[in-house]
Amino acid sequence: MTPALRSEASSLRDCSGLVAVVTGTSRGIGRATARLLAERGARVLGCSSQPSEPIDGVEQIMVDLAVPGAVETLMERSLAIAGSVDCWVNNAGRLAPIGALAEVDTEEVRKAIEVNVQAVVRATSLFAAHVASRPGAGVLINLSSGAGSTPYEGWAHYCAAKAFVDMLTEVVAREGAASGLRAHSVAPGVVDTEMQRLIRATPSSVFPAQPRFVARYEAGELKSAEEAARQIVDLVMDPGDVPVVLRLP
């Protein structure tokens, strides 16, 4: 059973002095997380692959993580702007293409793997090295999914990517502990985002589990992006007694 994250008290914790990089801030959980960190006083550098509405208090860096070398560029720009980074949130992800692996476009699969796996590996490596190179601790949050431990027909590359992220984070948490790195792979739950809208719009003939997600939406069981962001920021500031691989309640 996953220990509960702290609620009201930790929800109000001040983030002043924290420098955070959040990827995938054009919408959804990434945007909500960047906004909340900034509202609580952190200096936030947001990364998105496309133009989006500004977020108060967030400095946006436009980088397409599907392009090799993009993470290195993001780290270089972040350090040039802020000098040091205390928290890195790997939120950006791609669900498409949805469908049987034997039938989907292999180039689209490559792009998804570039974002969901390769970019996470590079960012995790660079941030772990950065934390080890300077005094003080650092917090790494890699966004995962229940799909990392549950196979879904039509999501082969996505399920595999999230399982990869879980184990990557487990190992890096051990490797980086001595240098002050705390790492978590966080499955936020079923959150009301563009990804969920894509799932509901996908025919069940392509994604057999689609009716299950539609039913949860119609029953009002989806978590808001803001609630997921609150839980993530609470974890950044005050983890309590939680495991490295965490399924948020």
Question: Can you lay out the helices and strands and say which pair or pack?
Answer:
Layout: H1 8-11, E1 19-23, H2 28-39, E2 43-48, E3 58-62, H3 70-82, E4 87-90, H4 106-133, E5 138-143, H5 156-176, E6 181-187, H6 194-201, H7 210-218, H8 225-237, E7 245-247
Parallel strand pairs: 1-2, 1-4, 2-3, 4-5, 5-6, 6-7
Helix pairs in contact: 2-8, 3-4, 4-5, 6-7
Folded structure, characterized:
With about 250 residues, the protein is α/β, with parallel strands linked by helices. The chain has one domain (about 10-190, about 225-245): NAD(P)-binding Rossmann-like Domain (Rossmann fold), CATH 3.40.50.720. About 45% of the residues lie in helices and about 15% in strands. The protein has 8 helices and 7 strands. It has helices spanning about 10, 30-40, 70-80, 105-135, 155-175, 195-200, 210-220, 225-235, and strands at about 20-25, 45-50, 60, 85-90, 140-145, 180-185, 245. Strands 3-2-1-4-5-6-7 form a 7-stranded parallel β-sheet, sandwiched between helices. Strand 4, helix 4 (about 105-135) and strand 5 form a beta-alpha-beta unit. Helix 4 packs parallel to helix 5 (about 155-175). The longest helix is centred in the middle third of the chain and has 28 residues, at about 105-135. The radius of gyration is 17 Å and the shape is globular. The relative contact order is 0.16. Mean pLDDT is about 95; it is low at about 1-10.
Q: What is the CATH superfamily?
A: NAD(P)-binding Rossmann-like Domain
| Main beta sheet | 7 strands, parallel
Low-confidence stretches: 1-12
Helical segment count: 8
Count up the domains.
1
Main β-sheet, spatial strand arrangement: 3-2-1-4-5-6-7
Distance between the termini: 10 Å
